[in-house]
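Design job #97: recover the sequence.
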């Protein structure tokens, strides 16, 4: 056998992981620049560059880098003055940080079901759950696909509720031409290593409701007016409000900025992979073996995730095992939060059948910048061979 054949076979059998963080090559340069500038605490030069990028690229009125999306969500709960006795409505099919941020302020969480055609929250169910105690609706743009925001926003307006977008997965995606993250009063993004654009751990708060901007800056800086003081707008630097250390080191911002400069390149490759999966797997959908993600006409696709829906939990378990035998890592996603060990005893609502179906039947396929066309073929072949 020739060496190139051996290498080809090795590649064909090598393990395909679910995610592999991509580095553009500029990260270390920028970290060195931050170190050489002699300032690696928060709100430094690279933080400002990242802020400018987002404000320019998406027209966000005001953004604040945070150490995580979890932190950005916690800032949202503080900014909205959520307190014990308040209720916050959100989908059960989401990450724990979405409710945790509000639970930390003493709120009761009211879990809504997903839509039948997407894992996003069902606006009609949201409206049915509103009580006099409801203060806010938190939507999650699952897989970067927009929720039906016109309906959510009109419900919020009718009952005078705040809207928070958990846009952790939603960078560079849109609802009717409007960037996700620009629609709610507040929005939270993630740059965790599992997202499209990364800084290891990292996140960002977007403040669209301009009445909340100056308080957001104070909460961000541990409850002080430090940022205004350093701009020369105040002659004292004092304790003004509650707050915490929500701002990341400029080293983190340096890594993020290297990624943002390459955002379009990253997005183009991810979208090509997503489309290749769709093309390869749509015959299986036509046969009725699986369902592919549905992208409503009002939404764009930022290729954060490619998932398939199996027809039963049993099918999915067997498919995961089959792919594992082929050295491919495919993984399921959220367990229903209303049934979680932490919340099930407090949950007073009804069954959430769509949430449970996504929880049992959804399977996420590997999707990252360096996934090759050959890898996608191998993954699609493995799924095809399972269904025979
Ligand atoms: C990733 C994610 C989070 C948490 O993001 P971190 O930056 O890790 O805190 C929150 N919500 C959703 C929907 C996510 O996908």
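Job complete. Output follows.
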């Amino acid at each position: 056998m020739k060496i190139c054949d051996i290498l080809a076979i090795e590649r064909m059998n090598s393990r395909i992981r679910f995610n592999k963080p991509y580095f553009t090559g500029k990260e270390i340069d920028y970290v060195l620049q931050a170190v050489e500038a002699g300032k690696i605490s928060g709100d430094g030069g690279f933080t400002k560059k990242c802020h400018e990028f987002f404000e320019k690229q998406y027209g966000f009125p005001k953004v604040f880098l945070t150490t995580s999306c979890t932190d950005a969500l916690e800032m949202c709960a503080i900014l909205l003055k959520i307190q014990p006795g308040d209720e916050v409505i959100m989908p059960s099919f989401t990450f724990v940080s979405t409710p945790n941020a509000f639970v930390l302020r003493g709120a009761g969480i009211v879990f809504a079901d997903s839509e039948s055609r997407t894992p996003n929250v069902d606006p009609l169910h949201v409206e049915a759950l509103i009580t006099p105690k409801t203060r806010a609706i938190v939507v999650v743009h699952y897989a970067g696909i927009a929720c039906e925001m016109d309906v959510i926003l009109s419900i919020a307006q009718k009952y005078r509720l705040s809207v928070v977008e958990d846009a952790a997965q939603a960078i560079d995606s849109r609802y009717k031409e409007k960037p996700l993250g620009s629609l709610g009063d507040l929005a939270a993004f993630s740059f965790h290593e599992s997202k499209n654009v990364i800084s290891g751990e990292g996140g960002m708060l977007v403040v669209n409701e301009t009445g909340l901007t100056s308080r957001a800056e104070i909460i961000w800086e541990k409850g002080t007016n430090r940022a205004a003081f350093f701009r020369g707008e105040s002659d004292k630097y004092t304790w003004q409000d509650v707050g915490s250390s929500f701002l990341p080191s400029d080293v983190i911002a340096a890594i993020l900025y290297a990624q943002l400069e390459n955002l379009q390149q990253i997005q183009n490759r991810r979208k090509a992979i997503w489309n290749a999966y769709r093309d390869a797997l749509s015959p299986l959908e036509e046969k009725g073996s699986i369902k592919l993600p549905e992208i409503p006409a009002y939404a764009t696709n930022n290729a954060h995730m490619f998932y398939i829906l199996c027809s039963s939990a049993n099918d999915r378990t067997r498919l995961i095992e089959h792919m594992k035998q082929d050295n491919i890592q495919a993984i399921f996603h959220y367990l229903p939060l209303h049934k979680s060990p932490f919340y099930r005893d407090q949950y007073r609502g009804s069954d959430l059948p769509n949430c449970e179906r996504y929880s049992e039947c959804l399977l996420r396929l590997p999707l990252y910048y360096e996934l090759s066309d050959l890898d996608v073929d191998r993954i699609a072949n493995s799924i095809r061979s399972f269904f025979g």
